Amino acid sequence: MAFADLLPELQAAAPKLRGRLLANQSLAEITWFRVGGPAQILFTPADEEDLAYFLASVPDHPVTVIGLGSNLIVRDGGVPGIVVRLARGFNEVKVEDNLVTTGTAVPDVKVARAAADASLAGLAFYRGVPGAIGGALRMNAGAYGGETKDALVEARAVDRKGNLHVLSNKDMGFSYRHSSPPDDYIFTRAVYRGMPGDAAAIAAEMESITERREATQPIKSRTGGSTFKNPEGHKAWQLIDGAGCRGLIVGDAQVSELHCNFLINRGNASAADVEGLGEEVRRRVKENSGVQLEWEIKRIGVPAAKVSA
To answer: Can you give the pTM of this predicted structure?
Structure first.
């Protein structure tokens, strides 16, 4: 099934658009789980100005933003409205005066490498974070002892009306795996401050992170990274293991036996399989320990049964 075609309406509303609009575009191929239905409209803006122009021109449709598709489940019915995916116009990284300025489509690992190449410490933790900088800003992404909040100077964002905002670290309202800007802000650029360091030591730290990830996480599987946030005073994987969920299967989705806070698509899972498995894990953990796990992976779209032509 497919959504109604919004393409003619949007093209008429934004005749000077330079980015690309695609109707009923599959999203499964650009998510790490490789599941999910289409975007009613997939919009790839040419740059920040193009994004602002588009948002100001078409105010009446819901807008959803995705990045590299790492920490994401797209439901089988797809995503109604407009899905914005930042790409080539937002992938520049520049290092100057201990500052790393980056577009939000840049993978986190690329930012870590740019800082390391400039002998700047403080961003090596991004070597262990899947996804791109936009998602890292939204969820205060972190790993291996570092978080986004520790190094961010400021971020730029465009709101739903096309207005530009510059937010300081304090403005971001960071907390554990969360930031507080309005949901309609689309981050376009970030500036980080690194600390002068020893290039060899930074390279060794990044290599250690790589080795630890490969030894403890199913990074070569179709997965979405850490599934649930660590509840206060607990580790999610220990709660999941304690509830007997390691290796648990729903459809063709499975709790990883290597790291049980990771769900994997064994090859033919649907989004419903993956999300259903996650909900079953939450149910069992709650029953076993009394702790309610909170999703870290973002879930968007509608179930297949709710798609309308």
So the answer is: 0.93
Is 224 exposed, middle or buried (CB count within 10 Å of its CB: 0-12, 13-18, 19+)?
A: buried
For 160-218, write each residue's pLDDT tens digit: 999 999 999 999 999 999 999 999 999 999 999 999 999 999 999 999 999 999 999 99
Choose the CATH number for 90-215 among 3.40.630.30, 3.20.20.370, 3.40.50.2300, 3.30.465.10. Answer: 3.30.465.10
Q: Kindly list the catalytic residues.
A: 177, 226, 296
CATH architecture of 7-88: 2-Layer Sandwich (3.30)
